[in-house]
């Protein structure tokens, strides 16, 4: 299994993978819309030989704390081929994406996802709770890549139109 940056030649496989994993087309449209909006910042695929078996996208997100911008990413979507789930493919993608995000100087990552899955990578619903956003509850989680990036005042998350929120 190898992980590398997405290239345009992967796009048909990425679309099929997302449609199969989610059982619909919202996520594959979201991916294209985020790329078109110039927001796709980290996009990786996991390969078994030449076959794309996993995909993750992190896109630039408007987050401010105490009126100051915090360089943040939204983790969405991510998917693993149905027949390849629960074999560590997703975890390897998340860890590599977060490593790259930190290396590139991003300060925080926000995710709306399975509350039992993302905490193992350091995501916390408690950290996201004070942020004003369209989401709330245990599925809305945040991770700081630099210490206290999301603390120090009132926080706000604004999703770009691509999300259709
Ligand atoms: C969620 C997903 C990306 C995880 O990838 P994966 O390669 O299966 O995950 P890993 O093998 O790295 O990790 C397996 C762990 O994830 C957990 N997990 C997998 N799918 C889960 C789900 N739907 N809800 C909660 N936990 C889940 C399992 O409990 C497992 O934990 P365990 O090892 O303690 O049993 C993958 O299952 C998937 O594509 N699901 C459908 C699409 C989706 O829901 N995407 C995420 C949107 S937030």
From TrEMBL:
| Keyword set includes Chaperone | no
> Which organism is this protein's natural source?
Reyranella soli
Top-rank taxon of the source lineage equals Bacteria
Mind listing the GO molecular function terms for this protein? Answer: acyltransferase activity, transferring groups other than amino-acyl groups
Cite the PROSITE patterns for this sequence.
GNAT
| Record-annotated N-acetyltransferase domain positions | 1-146
Q: Which UniProt keywords apply?
A: Transferase
Protein name, per record: N-acetyltransferase
UniProt cross-references to InterPro entries, sorted A to Z: Acyl_CoA_acyltransferase, GNAT_dom
Any single Pfam family the record assigns to this protein: Acetyltransf_9
**SUPFAM superfamilies attached to this UniProt entry:** Acyl-CoA N-acyltransferases (Nat) (SSF55729)
């Amino acid at each position: 299994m190898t992980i590398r940056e997405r290239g345009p030649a992967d796009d048909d496989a990425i679309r099929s993978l997302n449609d199969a994993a989610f059982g619909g087309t919202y996520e594959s449209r979201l991916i294209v819309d985020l790329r078109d909006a110039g927001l796709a910042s980290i996009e990786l695929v996991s390969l078994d030989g030449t076959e794309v078996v996993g995909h993750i996208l992190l896109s630039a997100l408007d987050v401010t704390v105490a009126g100051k911008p915090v360089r943040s990413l939204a983790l969405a979507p991510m998917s693993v081929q149905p027949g390849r789930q629960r074999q560590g493919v997703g975890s390897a993608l998340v860890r590599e994406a977060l490593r790259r995000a930190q290396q590139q100087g991003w300060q925080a990552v926000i995710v709306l996802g399975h509350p039992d899955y993302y905490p193992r990578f350091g995501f916390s619903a408690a950290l996201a709770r004070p942020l004003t956003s369209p989401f709330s509850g245990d599925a809305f989680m945040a991770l700081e890549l630099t210490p206290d990036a999301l603390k120090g005042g009132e926080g706000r998350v604004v999703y770009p139109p691509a999300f259709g929120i």
